[in-house]
Amino acid sequence: MNKKMDDRASGVTEAILRRHAEDQFKSELAALTEIDDRPRPPKWKLSPWAVATYVLGGKAGGTESSPKYIGKRRLVEIAIATLATDRALLLLGVPGTAKSWLSEHLAAAISGDSTQVVQGTAGTAEEQIRYGWNYALLLAKGPSREALVPSPVLKAMATGTMARIEELTRMPADVQDSLITILSEKSLPIPELGEEVQAAKGFNVIATANNRDKGVNELSSALKRRFNTVILLVPDNADEEISIVRQRVASLGTALEIPGDVPGIDQIRRVVTIFRELRNGQTEDGKSKLKQSSGSMSTAEAISVVNSGMALAAHFGDGSVKATDLASGIVGAVIKDPVQDRVVWQEYMETVLKERDGWKDLYRACRETI
């Protein structure tokens, strides 16, 4: 373990499945740092303007910064401006609206570190927000700084960096409320030591949440007041969603070293169209009403379907993504409830897929899959 850490520190390249944003886009961040002469809040690596350029894409000296988030610029600007104040940020939206993706890139651009993260689940304990103890040391020496195990939030407070809390509403209510003191007082008492940790300048919290998943725990009014909420919407139109899917599939294909070409725009358009129609409950032209699937039919799921099709084509086909490569992923995304969603999907296939010009191959492939 120590050798690996030493190698990484000395710049030895390792095969990592998913690099952190600050590592993957290191050259873009460096280029922005070099030309960024605007005022920066305390401890920020970049100015708010440069953070927005990094997230939304733009020119930085001789380097073109690729867009990490495709959506309304004003929403991103509000999110960044919030983090420059003492108010925490809550990114709220339905599943698949890139909340976690945006959270990671904001932390990477602002603090140069996106790793101070707590993943919210039904089993998340208060210690993961505040601190825990090394019980061997605690029994041997009693309460001490040496025995204390800081949470990612506590580490971010001490270093003046961004802490990320994913899926805040999946945490039990009492665990959520352990944030109230941290967000209002900007300090965390440690009664066992008779001490407190006060947040260094630059500290803030980026939380994400949605209210569509099962197991949601509503935020208390006291906690809601301590966040500025930015609602991330699903893409406005099909072209924007297609652009997002194509960009992310290309990025994932490179990272996972999947051989073969990125699917053509027509194949991606078909997947996105199906997802949008079943999500909205009507065909894109607005002429026909449709039953809706119980699944989220999100952009993130569309990315997963196309990425899976790309892998199937690369390893079990000729490298060119065809309808048969996409069909299983589409059916799996739509049919979450084996009874209700099967009826929805069969009706959609017979009334929309079957009748749409140029879609007969996809109709046949989907029919064979179910």
Question: Any overview of this molecule?
Answer:
This protein is globular. The protein has helices spanning 2-9, 21-24, 26-35, 48-56, 73-83, 99-111, 135-141, 152-159, 173-176, 179-185, 221-224, 238-255, 265-280, 299-316, 323-334, 340-353, 360-369; strands spanning 58-60, 63-65, 88-92, 117-119, 131-133, 148-150, 162-166, 187-190, 195-198, 204-209, 227-231. The protein has two domains: 16-231, P-loop containing nucleotide triphosphate hydrolases (Rossmann fold, 3-Layer(aba) Sandwich), CATH 3.40.50.300; 238-369. It is built from 17 helices and eleven strands. It is α/β, with parallel strands linked by helices and 370 residues long. Helix 4 (48-56) runs antiparallel to helix 5 and helix 12 (238-255) packs across helix 13 (265-280). It starts with a helix and ends with a helix.
